[in-house]
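Inputs:
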Amino acid sequence: MNRQILHLFALTLVLFGVLIAFTSRWSVFEAESLGDNTLNRRGLLEQQQVPRGLILARDGRTVLAESVPEGSGDARIYTRRYPQGSVFGHPVGYSYITIGESGLERSRNDALTGDLDEFGTIFRELQDRTREGDDVVTALDPDAQRQAMELLGDRKGSIVALEPATGWVRVAASTPGYDPNTVDEPDVFEALNAPDNTERQLINRAVQTNYPPGSTFKVVTAAAALDTGKATPDSILDGSSPQEVSGVPLNNAGNVSYGPITLTTALTNSVNTVFAQLGEQVGTRTLVEYMERFGFYRDPQLDYPEDEMLASGVRNADQQLVTSGFDVGRVAIGQGGAEGQVQVTPLQMAEVAAAVANGGKLMQPRLTERVVAKDGRVEEDIEPAQQSQVVKPETAQQLTEMMASVVDEGTGTRAALSGVSVAGKTGTAEVDNGLANQVWFIGFAPVESPRYAIAVTLEDQPVGSSGGVDAAPLAAAVLQTLLEGS
Amino acid sequence: MSARTRELFGLLPVSLLVCAGFAAVLVAQSQEVSDLTVTYGAVFLGLCVFGHLFIRARLPDADPYLYPLAALLAAFGLVMIYRIDTELAREQAQWFVIGLVLFCATIYLLPDHHVLERYRYTIAAVGIALLLLPRLPVIGEQVNGAFLAVKVGPIQFQPAEFAKLAIIVFLASYLRDTRDVLVRSRLKPLTPTATALLYGIPAALFVLVLLALDLRPVVAVLLGVFVLSLVTLIRERPSLKHFGPLLLIWGAAMLMLVFIRDLGSSLMFFGAFLALLYVATARLSIVGVGATLFLGGAAFLASTVGHVQSRIDTWLDPFDPVLYEAQGGSFQIAQSLFAQADGGLFGQGFGRALLELPGGGNIIPAAHTDLIYAVITDELGLFGAAGLILVYLLFVARGFKTALVASDGFSKLLATGLTAVFALQVFVIVGGVTKVIPLTGVTLPFVSYGGSSILANMVLLALLLIVSDHARRDRARGRSGGLV
């Protein structure tokens, strides 16, 4: 009988081995997919019981989001409050058990909930620290952001301001806004998401909406032409109007004919025919290559949820990104045709201005400066990172001088500030079959050593409006606030 | 060092675990580590030492590891239950005191386990009666579709826990008597032609059936094993007369499935039965026939008894939204898996796993009984859970060791049966919680909350120790030259 008893023991070993194998399957190997299972509410319930960290403005004092306790003891849960209301609604986003998370609340969720890896958790246990979220200090400037929202007012549009040398996003305004304090109320949320709601308040226009860039795109065309040696600021081109481009006549604004002029003069006065010729000289391939260097054709490299952002680039009638087969002459001036039309986000155009301002070097845009633990220790310093060298420093210098001339004596004079020189470019794109305008201004200041780059755009402006008149003053005001503030 | 001194030292880690465990839970619940911890630890340890002294007096030669291992499991369970609900832990501690009394009473009243052989049919009858109790009107209780509990006044108890002991005792004594007759090959070996025919004809039939019917692979394999085992068994020309009672037991197990409607406990009983049959006869063919008959019968019943069928459905697809929402559906097993997923390698620590919902109530149903293993994995991780399984394995190893050492057939079979049913109970509930097999309501021995379970397992431990005491004394005598 002893042999059989040993066999039984061997069988027990196998069976208990199976038990341990299955336990490890659930607790380790398939733990992640079980955690993501939609039936699993543990993550949400746990998050509710852990106070999320604060989200702060760049000053480290202004609270953009905080957790407040409700109830007591084991039944205590935390809910989110947003003291600044709709002013920071888009960049900060919201976090609720019922409707989930968006914006920074989502992209920085791990830091805000104090979510650590397996070994980090053990370390915390050994130190006998309870789980709590870390604070996220953003790069957002509270005064400038508030001013930008007020300047946009009840118009639809967006203002984005970056620090060219670091990529830090100082302003990310988008109107109409929404109040993140009430967005979780079922009727409010339903109304905001209703298909017939044309206001689309939940859309962050700074990063999630494509607009035609109008003449601001001429900066990209000029960058490609100068950097490849196809032209210099003093190259003479024919500024007469109209001219045939791809077999269809193209006009300058007001059909003004300039005759032979330099490239600088052409940018200063935003001469369409010159830049259409320039675009055709540069060619589709080179233009697309420079667009990619500026960050087009991919999601912005922002610390923001990917599916809440949109890539910029040339899009066909089906809204698909295309890299060839379009009318390069018209794309070069920020327009296009059925085969392809340039579509940009305000953040993308701010990055164009910032890259020029930073000697041709584009930094990855960043909403977060650092993550700080409750005891004041800096948990994570988010280092500025270069995204690409878009153009040579000399090219950037030439572009800077040309753009300074736009504000000094061209279409962008209303962006000028007293005592500080500003560089920029205006844009006015006809939309809705010429019944409305999309107006733009992109630029930076001070010209000598740029500290802030900006993009301003307004939707659905009446016929007769223009970037130089309607957008440039907004940029000047926000730039002034930023320069005074720091 | 004597066996008893080793046993006493074995209690040291137990006392450490009790104190450390209670301290950890108290810290996690952000109470102060008061002298309460020490009190709990001291009382528990005092009881353990009392049991130890009793064994020292009555069973001086018993296995020195079984008792500390059981105490370790009990301490572990007590800490877990304290963490889930302090009131339940108090009740559980009371049950342990009663269990210890019963443990001592068993050892005191039963100096020689061979006495049990005399009452084998009475014991068998009591066992069957206990199993059928929950089906009686008035006192019977249906829990989650299965009939496992009896309720008299305020006291609810699970007779199956005691029935398992009675049935093991009966089987051990019955098989001791009949094993020689069951095993004996009474005819001389068959001629090669006869052997070829004996195997060839059923094989041909089997292939024909496979070709004719479009069977599922599982069914085909089962059928194949059944045919092969049956033919091998027939070749042995066993005495049909003595197989009668065994067929009866198979029938009883099937009936139990129908009556109790609990796959888990019938798997436990029938598994232990097959284990004993195998040890007694050394014939795999018998196990093959028995196992395939049981599985076949269970599969047939599963398709006819709704409760068993739904248990299998929820086992196969716990994340099906319809099954998840259904009354008695897969919510329980799904929550078990989610809890284990939260545990990871090292767990969240004693008292730190998510158990209570903000609005009150538990996120894990039956956390203190059926699903306690899931809570353990959640709080102590894979390492803690594997450690627990390891302790069970050590206990089982000592149980089988007792069987190996025992000198007479009854003692060997009794120790084997008790150990096997213990191991199977662990497998059935942990396997259910980890989705190896369908989840059924069996307790985790010594760890889960439950009076019947503690009392029955204390008796099981007492019986093992009695067998072990005799066996080791006999062997010691044999070694010293059989002087006494």
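Chain B touches chain A through 55 residues (CB under 8 Å). Flag for discussion at group meeting.
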